[in-house]
Amino acid sequence: MARILIVDDEAKIREMIKKYAVFEGYEVAEAEDGFNAVQLVEKNDYDLIVMDVMMPDLDGFSAVKAIRKIKQTPVIMLSARGEEYDKIHGFEVGVDDYVVKPFSVKELMMRIQAVLARGKHNSAEENSIESFEGLTLDYTARIVSIDGKRIDLSPKEYELLFFLAKNKNIALSRERLLTEVWGYDYYGDDRTLDTHIKLLRKSLGEYQKFIVTVRGVGYRFDA
Fold first, then answer.
1. Residues 9 and 80 grouped into a single domain
2. Tens digit of pLDDT for each residue in 180-223?
């Protein structure tokens, strides 16, 4: 049974999400603010966190940054603000998915299923390390190194880079990338993919050259 932590300062929203999550068979814990969430994550292991952005004292972005220092638990962010800047900031601190309020709880449950399913797939991967010039990918340990120095990527950046590299020299459509990396139940748009590609290229520095845009199709890892 997967364990989910719901973090929101509004009790009604926590209760609404919890009702559906319990019905889907998840074990649910709650936190009313960012500080409480960080404390719970320090003491317990969760399979996924649903985190609100706007909370008193410690907001969702700051809470995720603190959590990422100790654990890599997948996070779905909830926000009443849908601006691209907020989404980019969320992905930069390590958020796996982003849901804008008001939202459908049924859709949120499907997104939770997709993120959890992707996590199980990653954990089942065989031990493998590949190098492309000075770029080294350790698939099992989820470590990316540039010229021998480890770099930090968000969970989705890891998944996107690894999927591209494992399918090197193959033009991958936007639809396939969204399906494979975000899950079969993903309801977002191409801008989410483009934002992650932009962030990933920035993180890879000179080795961003391996990620090539295929006009009218999607992207390809050239190596």
1. yes
2. 888 755 555 668 889 999 999 999 999 999 999 999 999 999 98
Looking at residue 79, its amino acid is: S
Could you tell me the CATH number of the domain that includes residue 48? 3.40.50.2300
- Residues 123-158 have pLDDT tens digits of 544 448 899 999 999 887 789 999 999 999 988 899
b/e 55-70 (16+ beta carbons within 10 angstroms → b)? beebbbbbbbebbbee
Taking the C-alpha atoms of residue 147 and residue 192, their distance in angstroms, rounded to an integer, is: 29
Within 10 angstroms of residue 15's Cβ, the number of other Cβ atoms is: 12
- 24 and 119 in a single domain? The answer is yes
Structural domain span for residue 97: 3-123
Angle, CA of 114, 119 and 120, to the nearest 5°: 100
